[in-house]
Amino acid sequence: MELTAAVRSDRGLVRETNQDTYLVLRSPHNDQLLVAVADGMGGAQGGEVASQMAIDALIRRATGMWQLTAPQQRMAWLLESVAAANQEIYSRASIDERLRGMGTTLTAAFCAAESIIVAHVGDSRAYLFQEGSVRQLTTDHSLVQQLIDGHQLSEEEAAVHPQRNILTRAVGVEPSVEIDCAQHAWSPGDILLLCTDGLTHVLQPPALQEALQLGSVEHICHALIERTLQAGAPDNVTVLAVQNGDRSSS
Length: 250
Prior knowledge:
Blueprint: E1 3-10, E2 20-26, E3 33-41, H1 43-61, H2 71-95, E4 103-104, E5 106-111, E6 115-121, E7 125-130, E8 133-136, H3 143-149, H4 155-159, E9 180-185, E10 191-195, H5 197-200, H6 205-211, H7 217-230, E11 237-244
Antiparallel strand pairs: 1-11, 2-3, 3-4, 3-5, 5-6, 6-9, 7-8, 7-10, 10-11
Helix pairs in contact: 1-2
């Protein structure tokens, strides 16, 4: 089963630099994909370094990943790789004063024909478009999400809250980090969407669902970036989409 991927990233209309980094890595037999998005934090230089280090850590460890067949093995690989990225970023920040306090979100997915395994830290997100509707696969590690979970804030209030950018968990900020990791089934025609918060702070789920029905993953990524720019794009924005096979077969 062919997996098709597309990605677009833009610094937006306010930021001077783009601290987002992404990954699309295809297996030697073209039947598996490793994809990820990372949104750096900690000043312009620190944010760029942290997000790139997170993606580089996945790339360096990917060689032996394609031979893993059991879901438990793939999940363990993802968890170990994100933990390694956390340690590398934290160690680098500890010895370089200019990078002190840097960190990054990281949402990564191992995609095969039968399932997706998603590892997640921070407030970048993964969505699955399936049977005509979109479902969020990840939960934000953010202050506003904690307030929502505690019934102290509504989804509508969270969207405009002045502290909506405050993370409760990020890669590289502490010596170790708790990583969410889960497996999800998908079928031919389904689409996985990874994105940074530059998208989700501007576009709401109905707009995502509408865009995910536009056709190819290239069209989807283009449309989501353009709509974000039209809405003012106050932050860097990265959109990465993976389609499982052909929609006509779903």
